[in-house]
Amino acid sequence: MDVLDIINKLKDRVPSILGYEQLRKSAVLIPLVEIENETHILFEVRSMELRSQPGDICFPGGRIDLDDPEPRYCAIRETTEELGIAESTIKDVLPLDYVTMDRGRIIYPFVGRITNHTQMRPNPSEVSEVFTVPLAYFLNTEPEKYRVNLQVVPDADFPFDLIVGGENYNFREHPIEELFYKYDNKVIWGLTAKILTHFIELLHEK
Fold first, then answer.
1. 12 in a domain, yes or no?
2. Strand 127-134, strand 38-46: pairing
């Protein structure tokens, strides 16, 4: 294959994320509700019966199924299933920046309005409770920030003989910043806090 063959083969290709097919893909929705003429954000508390992150606070959402036509559809579908509401009550669903995680995940966040939050019937197998926080609280409150260092731990059969430095190779720690919001005895942290902070930053920019 000569140089021109290579150029012709690649010139119309649209770049993506390397290894995209293997990524676990999810979508979530930041639900906005009106309570006494004030905008609130709705959160879920995950059921203690769930294997993954039981008891954590999160937004509605979940894994993108193969038959979901796009991430937005998944965010709406998961919200209807978890909160027990009709799709018609979810309005103005808009995308935020997507999030890629070191553990092979990509999350597509959206924000939208829920018009009948008082008629929700949360699915108890997934949601132990729902609560809301006034948007104004987040607009006026900085999250607490803490650092976590992720370390590289090679498997026992890792081929150290193939790399310069062998077992003394300087694998670097990867620092990440964890964010925490505290409100009315509730703690919002992790990915939920990261997406929430991004949303609030966008509002401040506008």
1. no
2. antiparallel
C-beta of residue 113 within 8 angstroms of C-beta of residue 30: no
How many percent of the chain have pLDDT more than 90? 79
Overall domain count for the chain: 1
* d(C-alpha 188, C-alpha 70), whole Å: 27
Query: Among residues 33, 195, 29, which one has the least CA distance to residue 111?
Result: 29
The rounded distance, in Å, linking the Cα atoms of 99 and 24 is 12
45-60 as b/e: b if 16+ CB within 10 A: bbbeeeeeeeebbbbb
Q: Residue 128: give its domain's CATH number.
A: 3.90.79.10
Identify the burial level of 62 via C-beta atoms within 10 angstroms of its C-beta, where 0-12 means exposed, 13-18 middle and 19 or more buried.
Answer: middle
List the structure tokens of 123: 């699915």
* Inside any domain, residue 14: no
pLDDT in tens, 93-106: 999 999 987 678 99
pLDDT value for 176: 87
The token pair that represents 63 in the structure block: 């894994």
pTM assigned to the model: 0.89
Q: Is residue 56 part of a domain?
A: yes
For residue 195, the enclosing domain spans 22-205
* pLDDT tops 90 at residue 21: no
pLDDT band at 173 (very low <50, low <70, confident <90, very high): confident
Amino acid 206: pLDDT: 61
For residue 16, is it within any domain?
Answer: no
